[in-house]
Design a protein that fits this description.
By secondary structure, the protein is an alpha+beta fold. It is built from 3 helices and 9 strands.
């Protein structure tokens, strides 16, 4: 069964989500939507090298991998391909647990390797000549994706 969806690129996701709309926030690197089964639960799919990959072909959105809402009562499982929801079968808990363990290992390996990469820090700039944010001027690290996503979610409540 296929279900058509639409997408909207937004800076901040609206307080009230519409059914069948994928809200894409590039600033927060995430896609938010209501569960496609109709249960009304909000689904967040962070876009990152260890989470979901967003493809926009100029007309439609695709997400990879599938969306498995295993912690929801509905346990819906679907792919989003070219603004179409492609329904998939439920998965046994053993496969869900194995997938979660694999994802955790991939995140650990990815971020462990990232800490070994050289870090570029913005030079300290004269405040009078700059429009840069204060943390960049001071050479402080910026908040990561999870911190920005948590702050965004807190502002929505």
């Amino acid at each position: 069964m296929k279900t058509a969806v639409t997408h909207q690129f937004v800076q901040v996701v609206p307080d009230k989500l519409q059914e069948g709309v994928l809200y894409v926030s590039m600033e927060y690197a995430t896609v938010i939507h209501k569960c496609m089964c109709g249960c009304g639960k909000e689904v967040a799919t962070p876009i990152s090298p260890t989470d979901w990959c967003l493809t926009f072909d100029g007309d439609s959105i695709s997400l990879d991998p599938s969306v498995g809402n295993w912690s929801f009562p509905c346990r819906s499982h679907y792919w989003i391909r070219n603004n179409q929801v492609l329904w998939w079968d439920d998965m046994p808990q053993s496969l869900i647990d194995a997938g979660r363990a694999r994802d955790k290992r991939a995140k650990t390996a990815y971020y462990a390797n990232r800490s070994e990469l050289p870090v570029k820090i913005a030079p300290v700039l004269d405040k009078s000549e700059s429009q840069w944010p204060e943390d960049v001027i001071r050479g402080e690290p910026r908040d990561g994706l999870l911190s920005r996503l948590a702050a965004w979610y807190a502002r929505r409540k």
